[in-house]
């Protein structure tokens, strides 16, 4: 039971939501959970990872490939389509253990009942393959027309991106290639069909598609079955995508659906044997946590170079398909503990995009590396200066996410350092990791402002994690992370001591000698807001406590339009203490060893009622700190909110007319963190794995594995304590 995510009934009003919920993927593409017969109005998408394009003046977004699954069944000339036909029964599900999408529909129409059963998977062993098995059975002997092929007229938020379609057909294989407008990427999809029935076949082309039509008389009670072996290649992968796609589609077809499914199942069984977290005593939490892990595993960039995970995963083009700090701060821990090779790919993306970060720093007049707030393929920042549209005037509003959210560079440095510590691989530092960290530290050095009257460096005019307060001074989180970056830059240089030639060359290349001296001074004098002696509270930024102290509900009641933006210059939260998401609490969570329990408790209690949790990144952090201060019952509702965000679909879907929905990988990673690092209290320090469980009262046991260097550790915890042993 706890491996199945299932929905019964037609529920057409949830079509878009189910597109996210029933997503399949393999890191190279994500395929939304839409029905085979849907066209672009229902937002089906085969969303490609790390390949972007721009249409006109709209923002750049990832490309959706032509839809190779497209299939429409006509019975006596009538389309049997979930949108328009009555159904006696309909079920859609994801079997998470096998990463399979399954659909069962019993249509009722003038020709009697028609049963459709389909199954699809994004191959876990060959990232270019999407496989489908489809069968149908009719109550009465009737004329059938089956149309199946590749629909290139795809859904886009800011598209269309594909032009100059070219069609290919040979035997049972169809192919469709198109070229993207801005970058001139070629995207090719090939599809080979195998049927267990025969009929009159015709291939037809539309401007943006190629299809087969098969007509025959279907006998009452007989099940007809076909499979589609779909291959997707782009010119970013190979010089001749059509050749590769046709070949891959052919050989997949020859191998057969069942054989490929078996390989896929074995691969997924293997993945789950490492990644699963078992919870005894709470089926709902178990399902939600597994689903979060499933989501992370279907979007993980494996065997790929220089791609990372966008903020909405591979569920579509929202958030420009861009990579945010979400990856390092919220998703990386899961991969570091269960799939270090994937964690290294994520880091590699930042190493490869260092030049983009350098260019951004230079653009603003700084030195070092200022990473993109919304990073695309070469590290360019997709975040616009006007990232929000005002609901009243419909005019773009000046926002400062791009220019002022400087904590992004610290997140990158933090991620690399965490990865180095977990893997112990010096090569990671020597192959670019050290350079990134040093350049991030240099950025903070050049950004910092020395205040002679206070004899300290400050970080002024920034935005912390709480985006509702723009252009603040000395955001505690940002200052602490900048100080930490300088710290790890020093540690990196220490690590390189045993490789003096490399170290000397790096320092010379970066002209870093003088920087080292300056960083030493800055480390001594960089201001990091501390807990107040009396109250124990850390002020989120200079002057925060002087802002109006009110409640989230009061601020909400001041909205004139429910879609109004809370932040920015005139937002309802801007002059109040109401914050969007965990900020000081995130700082205390990351550096929990450095602060007294009482300080953590007081800040949790102060900031929580003032937090709107307007970002899905927020609740998991409150859960983590609550566990740390020994209060799992406080943590539990935040954990559940995080773990079930993509199951309930309770997140904003539209901003004005713009679709902003999708999956929430940072929350998915946050759910894993809250469970393993929070409730189980997993700690890895100096090569030792230990636990300090704080289970919610109705949880009896948790079981999971973690990887540290080459070793796999089994962990089992109960309320009384825990056991850790090597495999
Ligand atoms: C949050 C950011 C986050 C972004 C992408 C925003 O709503 O405030 O912290 O990086 O969403 O998930």
UniProtKB/TrEMBL annotation:
Residues 290-672 form the Glycoside hydrolase family 65 central catalytic domain. Gene3D superfamilies: 1.50.10.10, Glycoside hydrolase, family 65, N-terminal domain (2.70.98.40), Maltose phosphorylase, domain 3 (2.60.420.10). Residues 22-236 form the Glycoside hydrolase family 65 N-terminal domain. Residues 682-724 form the Glycoside hydrolase family 65 C-terminal domain. Substrate binds at residues 325-326, 580-581. Signal peptide: none annotated. The keyword Cell inner membrane does not apply. InterPro entries: 6-hairpin_glycosidase_sf, 6hp_glycosidase-like_sf, Gal_mutarotase_sf_dom, GH65_N, Glyco_hydro_65_C, Glyco_hydro_65_M, Glyco_hydro_65_N, Malt_Pase/Glycosyl_Hdrlase. The active site is at residue 467. Keywords: Glycosyltransferase, Transferase. GO terms for biological process: carbohydrate metabolic process. GO terms for molecular function: carbohydrate binding; glycosyltransferase activity; hydrolase activity, hydrolyzing O-glycosyl compounds. It holds the Pfam family Glyco_hydro_65C. The keyword S-adenosyl-L-methionine does not apply. Belongs to the glycosyl hydrolase 65 family. This is Nigerose phosphorylase.
């Amino acid at each position: 039971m706890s491996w199945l995510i299932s929905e019964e009934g037609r529920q057409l009003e949830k079509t878009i939501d189910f597109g996210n919920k029933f997503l399949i993927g393999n890191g190279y593409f994500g395929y939304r959970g839409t029905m085979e017969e849907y066209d672009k109005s229902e937002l089906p998408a085969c969303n490609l990872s790390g390949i972007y394009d721009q249409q006109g003046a709209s923002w750049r977004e990832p490309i959706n490939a032509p839809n190779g699954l497209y299939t429409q069944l006509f019975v006596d000339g009538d389309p049997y389509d979930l949108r328009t036909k009555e159904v006696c029964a309909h079920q859609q599900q994801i079997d998470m253990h096998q990463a399979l999408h399954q659909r069962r529909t019993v249509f009722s129409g003038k020709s009697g009942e028609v049963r459709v059963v389909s199954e699809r998977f994004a191959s876990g062993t060959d990232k270019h393959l999407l496989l489908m098995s489809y069968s149908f059975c009719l109550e009465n002997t009737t004329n059938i027309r089956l149309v199946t092929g590749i629909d290139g007229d795809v859904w886009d938020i800011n598209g269309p991106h594909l032009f100059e379609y070219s069609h290919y057909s040979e035997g049972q294989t169809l192919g469709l290639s198109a070229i993207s407008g801005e970058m001139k990427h070629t995207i090719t999809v090939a599809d080979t069909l195998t049927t267990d029935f025969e009929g009159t076949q015709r291939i037809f082309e539309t401007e943006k598609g190629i299809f087969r039509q098969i007509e025959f008389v279907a006998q009452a009670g007989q099940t007809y079955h076909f499979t589609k072996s779909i291959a997707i290649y782009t010119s970013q992968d190979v010089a001749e995508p059509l050749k590769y796609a046709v070949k891959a589609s052919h050989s997949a077809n020859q191998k057969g659906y069942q054989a490929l499914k078996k390989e896929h199942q074995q691969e997924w069984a293997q993945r789950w044997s490492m990644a699963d977290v078992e919870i005894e005593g709470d089926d709902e939490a178990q399902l939600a946590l597994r689903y979060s892990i499933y989501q992370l595993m279907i979007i993980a960039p494996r065997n790929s170079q220089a791609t990372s995970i966008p903020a909405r995963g591979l569920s579509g083009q929202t958030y420009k398909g861009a990579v945010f700090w979400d990856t390092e701060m919220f998703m990386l821990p899961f991969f570091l503990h269960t799939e270090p090779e994937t964690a290294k790919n994520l880091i590699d993306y930042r190493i490869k995009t260092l030049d983009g970060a350098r260019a951004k720093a230079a653009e603003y007049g700084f030195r070092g590396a200022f990473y993109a707030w919304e990073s695309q393929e070469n590290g360019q920042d997709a975040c616009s200066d006007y990232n929000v549209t005002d609901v009243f005037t419909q005019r773009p509003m000046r926002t400062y996410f791009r220019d002022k959210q400087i904590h992004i560079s610290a997140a990158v440095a933090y991620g690399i350092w965490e990865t180095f510590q977990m893997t112990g691989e010096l090569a990671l530092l020597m192959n670019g990791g050290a350079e990134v960290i040093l350049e991030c530290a240099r950025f903070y050095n050049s950004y910092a402002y020395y205040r002679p009257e206070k004899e300290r460096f400050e970080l002024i005019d920034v935005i912390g994690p709480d985006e509702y307060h723009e252009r603040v001074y000395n955001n505690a989180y940002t200052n602490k992370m900048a100080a930490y970056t300088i710290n790890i830059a020093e540690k990196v240089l220490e690590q390189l001591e045993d490789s003096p030639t490399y170290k000397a060359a790096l320092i010379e290349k970066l002209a870093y000698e003088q920087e080292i001296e300056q960083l030493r001074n800055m480390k001594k004098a960089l201001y990091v807001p501390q807990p107040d002696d009396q109250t124990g509270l850390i002020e989120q930024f200079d002057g925060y406590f002087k802002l109006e102290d009110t409640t989230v509900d009061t601020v909400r009641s001041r909205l004139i339009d429910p879609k109004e933006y809370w932040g920015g210059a005139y937002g309802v939260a801007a002059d109040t203490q109401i914050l969007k998401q965990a900020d000081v609490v995130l700082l205390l969570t990351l550096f929990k060893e450095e602060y007294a329990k009482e300080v953590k408790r007081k800040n949790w209690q102060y900031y929580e009622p003032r937090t709107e949790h307007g970002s899905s990144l927020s609740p998991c952090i409150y859960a983590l700190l609550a566990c740390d201060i020994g209060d799992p019952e406080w943590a539990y509702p935040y954990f559940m909110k995080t773990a079930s965000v993509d199951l309930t679909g309770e997140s904003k879907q539209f901003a004005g007319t713009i679709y902003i929905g999708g999956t929430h990988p940072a929350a998915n990673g946050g759910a894993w963190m809250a469970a393993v690092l929070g409730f189980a209290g997993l700690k890895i320090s100096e090569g030792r794995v230990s636990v300090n469980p704080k289970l919610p009262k109705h949880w009896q046991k948790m079981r999971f594995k973690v990887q540290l260097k080459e070793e796999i550790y089994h962990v089992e915890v109960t309320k009384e304590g825990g056991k850790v042993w090597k495999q």
